[in-house]
Design goal:
The complex is a heterodimer.
Chain A (H helix, E strand, L loop, with lengths): L2 H18 L4 E10 L6 H12 L8 E7 L2 E4 L5 E3 L16 E3 L6 E9 L2
Parallel strand pairs in A: 1-2
Antiparallel strand pairs in A: 1-6, 3-4, 3-5
Helix pairs in contact in A: 1-2
Chain B lengths: L2 E8 H18 L2 E7 L6 H8 L7 E7 L4 H8 L4 E5 L8 H7 L6 E6 L16 E6 L7 H4 L1 H6 L2 E4 L12 H11 L5 E3 L8 H11 L6
Parallel strand pairs in B: 2-5, 2-6, 3-4, 3-5, 6-7, 7-8
Helix pairs in contact in B: 1-4
The chains are: A alpha+beta, B alpha/beta.
Amino acid sequence: MHEYPITQAIVETAERHARRHRAARVTAINLVIGDHSGYLADAIELYFDIVAKGSLAETARLNIERVRPMLRCAVCGGLFRRRPFEFSCPEPGCGGEGAPTDIGREFLVKSIEIETD
Amino acid sequence: MGEVISVQEELLERNRLLAAKVNYDLTSRGVFAVNVMGAPGVGKTTVLLNLIPLLDKPSFVIEGDIQSDIDTRKMRAAGIPATQINTDGACHLDSPQIAGAIPADLAGFLFIENIGNLVCPAEFMIGEHIKLLIVTPVEGADKPYKYPLAFEKADVIVVNKLDLLPHVDFDWDYFADGVGKLNQRVPLFKVSGRTGEGFEAVAQWLTEKARGVLS
């Protein structure tokens, strides 16, 4: 349910940039969404057509690049993907524990593709 | 293919920035904000009604619900100033709503009773200093395993409805193990909103935690 406002924000952002470039329409919106951003890519795709109707992004294709969350080891500084129920660093002999990073929390409108008539 | 326009706008940054701004504003006014989370019916309102009178600073409560002002009326009937936010559908409170609901003459504690929901509130900072999670034995001991983010993000966990423990199956060790794997230092308090037991310890912990902020 909370994907609705952010989908509105995607459409608003796309339209704003499209207008700046005097576009007739937005043909694609390229997004980068982290698994821990708090939003589900599927739900956004579901709402997009509804929210985009009547806007310059009405016929746009959504391209979503997914980012898996990474932890950073407090001992060796390495980045790693977390395994269920543990924070331990997979580097052999390290023994450190990982802390969450911003990797996996993104919600980026990277770019849009437009057509000017 | 048409022309590609670089946008590079981080949509969550707006919310995070506003949450940070709300938090900074509260801190500089000497107000300590607690984001109270938990599934519907765990006793968020009841816990606050028991806890607030034990604090030696004033409290203000922002009540969040999809609809109704039932909780705000309970607060006011108990002499606790409160305001209601109705989201009419949204499953968690967000920073802009909180920023708009904070009264000008705030002092002491700000409790934000979030929407009854074990999923979404954990994902969002809304200007609070800490997140307080309420659970009960009635929901079962497997909640940390099924809803990890809520337990990871909690700064303190209050287990309410202790009086019902004899009537339900609750494996305390299984529950505590699950919490421990996700959040090694989080304090666990046991209370009963019905009998009033256990709240002194929570009040003491909270007062200590707020010491650096409260004016």
